[in-house]
Amino acid sequence: MEAIVCATHGAMGSVLRKLGALLSDEYKLLRSVKGDVMFLKAELESMHAFLKMMSEVEDPDELSKCWIKEVRELSYNIEYGIDSFMLSPCGESSRKPRGFKGRLSRCMDIMTNSKTRHCIAKKIKVLKQDAIEVSSRRARYKVDDVVSKPSRISIDPRLPAFFTEMTRLAGIDGPKDKLIKLLTEGEVAIAQQLKVVSIVGIGGLGKTTLANQVYQKLEGQFECQAFVSVSQKPDLKRILRNILSQICCQERVSNEEWDEQQLINTIRQFLKHKVLHSNR
Where are the domains of the chain? Predict the structure, then answer.
C-alpha cells in the first residue's frame, strides 16, 4: 500500500508543478479557464497534503485505498490535459514578431486556435467536475477518519517463529548448520569480529524461524545477546529498549524519558569489553 501512496504522491507533485506553469504569463488562458485551473490547483494541493498524511497510516482500510487510486487516476487525467494544451498551437508562447508579419501571424492564430481554446476549456471544466466528485466522495465516506484514528496495533506475522518447536520443523538442519559455520569458522581473532549474514526469500519460507534456531544454538557462546524483530516501519526507540532489556537488567530500561541517542549510548557502554566465549 505504501508504494501506491508514494506513486500517487509523486504523480500529484508533477501535476501541481505543471498547473503552476500553466498559470504563468507565458500561456494565454481564457478568463474562465484560468479560474478553473486555479480551482484545480487548490483542490489538488489539498489532496496532496492529505496523501502525505495517509503515507503515515500503516494499514489503511479498503475505502481509503479506493480513494487513493481515484486521486491517482485524476492526477494522470489532469496531467494529460495539461500536456495536450501545452503542446497545442494555443499553448505556445504569445511572443510574435512585430510589424505586418506579426499582425498577420496573430490573426491566423485567432482563427485557427479559437476552436482549440474552447475545446480545452471544455476539457478543463470536465476535469474540474471530476476533482469536485473525488473531493465530495472523500467527505461523503469520511475517508479523513482513517488518518485521525489511532493506528491499529498489528501483530508481527513473524512472531510465531520465535516459539516454533524443533520437532515441528523439517529440513532446517542443513541451512542452520551452514549459517552456524559462516558465523563461527575462522581464526579466533577473525571469529570475534562483526559478522552479518543475510537470509533472503519470499514470505512464509521460514526465514525468521531459521534465524531464531541459529540464535538459540549460538547464544551460549556470547557474554550477552539479543534477538529482535524489525517491521517495515520500525519504531527505533522500541527496538533499542527491547535490545537493552535483553542484554542487561530490566531496571536499566525503566526510564521512559530516554531518547534514541541515550539508549544507543547506554547499549554501547554496556557492550564494552564483552567477549565471545570460544568453545575450541
Answer: 2-148, 159-271
